[in-house]
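Progress note, project year one: complex with 1,3-dihydroxyacetonephosphate.
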Amino acid sequence: MNLTELNKVATAMVAPGKGVLAADESSGTIKKRFDAIGVESTEDNRRDYREMLFRSTDAMSRHISGVILYDETIWQNAKDGTPLIRLIEQAGAIPGIKVDEGTQALPMCPGELVTVGLDRLAERLKKYYERGARFAKWRAVIDIGSGIPSMTAIHVNAHALARYAALCQAAQIVPIVEPEVLMDGDHDIDRCYEVTSRVLNKTFQELRVQRVALEGMILKPNMAVSGKKCAKQASVAEVADKTVRLLKACVPAAVPGIAFLSGGQSDEDATAHLNAMNTLCPLPWRLTFSYGRALQAAPQKAWSGKAENVAAGQKAFTHRARMNALATKGEWASALEQKAA
Ligand code: 13P
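Model obtained:
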């Protein structure tokens, strides 16, 4: 393992003014997104949609540091035969790959899940590296409910995340470590804070036990937010304050950067929260985005599967990428959203 090189890639992923596009929806998830805009989820439609994003040259070269791909996409060619992964490289962004294989029910823990995909991961990482991937992603899912999460679920998921991260680094790939505490449910922000803190502490404990080099990884956490069904929704300032406090308490300064998931927040909330955090300087690590829905909901709607809407889709994507890029520097303001509209 060459830690200097890993650190270089990790640092580039969180460069000021840039963030990660999570375009790694599994076949099931992209079908759900396409259903919502009335588009059939065929291999060609998935290709056309992602090609539209990766050919948004302005957004890709100025605001996007890296793209997380799904297995199908990393092997797929654009309409003109160019591999999609080359479009990303040509724009100056770094290709990455989702390597977990989804979740399964966790035995003895009703309602809880464990992420799977460690078997043969070493061989798969080797192939992805040869294809050009320089970072990877593994997502663990922790739900908040009555009596959950159990310490069992937190422990097994943290263990798997660390196993994955160590295998990535051995394959010269930067691991994005993503322990996602879901924002579904009616819990308040303090409960989210408390659960996320247990999850992060366990995750870093496992990372240390399994000898993962913190300088060569990126953390992808949820923010401390109120559950979607909670009657009392925390303000932008409270989310920013509590999330930064939580991360300072749990995340070692050796980690080069933290790239948040959007997790079902509205586009503008995800941007506003990131922006507010980046005004709370100084911070020990870079804070940026690794958004899926909060970057793609607008372009998906604008595109709606029609070739004549590609320019509109690219415009919507470029706008969201630029807003979030500004938020990585604490330079976003909601007036910029209205101006563009
Ligand atoms: P969302 O931003 O839509 O939560 O997706 C990010 C992601 O990669 C989840 O694994």
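The beta strands are 19-23, 64-69, 94-98, 103-105, 113-115, 135-142, 174-181, 218-219, 257-260, 286-291.
Residues 266 and 294 are 7 Å apart (CA to CA).
No further modelling is planned for this target in the current period.
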